[in-house]
Specification:
Strand order of the largest sheet: 1-2
Shape: globular
Distance between the termini: 30 Å
Number of strands: 2
Structural class: mainly alpha
Length: about 200
């Protein structure tokens, strides 16, 4: 009989497949296909998208002044995010081979494609570029941190915490001293590169 954890994983796999099916249906509905992981729209769809674009000055005219004034607070954060990206990537490049942890691929997390939509003006494209990078970067960093946690301290918390990464479910129960001694190496082994 499958454990509750196995049942949840099966359900998660089923939900993931439903998401994939929904994305495929959206591709059909909005007339685009993926070529080398890039969306390609039919020519007539591109023309409709360009016709739907709100020009920059019209867009700006309908934007509240306080929203415009807060923009520098958003965009100045690009500096620490880029620095964080560099430092975490360097950490992974130096430490993961030593620990025997498979590297996290940036391209699996940072997907920059919304700026290619023809119905967005240049400022909207810039905003989408920024958000895609920052949210993808956070996902990338979260996976690096999750693998690091699985290597060094794979112990569940004593109470529920919001937004736990999916690796946490496999961690050793809080207070399980025997499990800590017997399961730590197995959890570390799971982090290694796939063996052929």
């Amino acid at each position: 009989m499958p454990s509750a954890l196995e049942e949840m994983r099966a359900r998660m796999a089923e939900l993931q497949q439903r998401l994939e099916d929904d994305m495929s249906a959206a591709r059909d509905r909005f007339s685009y296909r993926l070529e080398r992981e890039r969306a390609v729209f039919d020519v007539e769809v591109v023309a409709r998208h360009r016709a739907a674009r709100v020009r920059f000055w019209e867009f700006l005219r309908h934007t509240r002044p306080l929203v415009v004034l807060t923009a520098p607070f958003i965009y100045v954060l690009i500096l620490p995010f880029v620095l964080l990206d560099l430092m975490v990537s360097l950490y992974q490049a130096v430490c993961f081979p030593v620990y025997g942890i498979a590297r996290v691929r940036r391209r699996d997390h940072i997907v920059i494609d919304r700026h290619l939509l023809h119905y967005l003006n240049w400022l909207q494209k810039l905003n989408c570029l920024y958000c895609s990078y920052v949210n993808g970067l956070i996902s990338y960093i979260r996976e690096i941190a999750a693998r690091t946690e699985q290597y060094w301290c794979p112990i569940k918390h004593s109470r529920r915490a919001a937004g736990l990464h999916e690796r946490h479910a496999d961690f050793i129960d809080y207070g399980d001293a025997k499990g800590w001694r017997t399961e730590l190496e197995a959890l570390r082994d799971k982090l290694g590169p796939p063996r052929a």
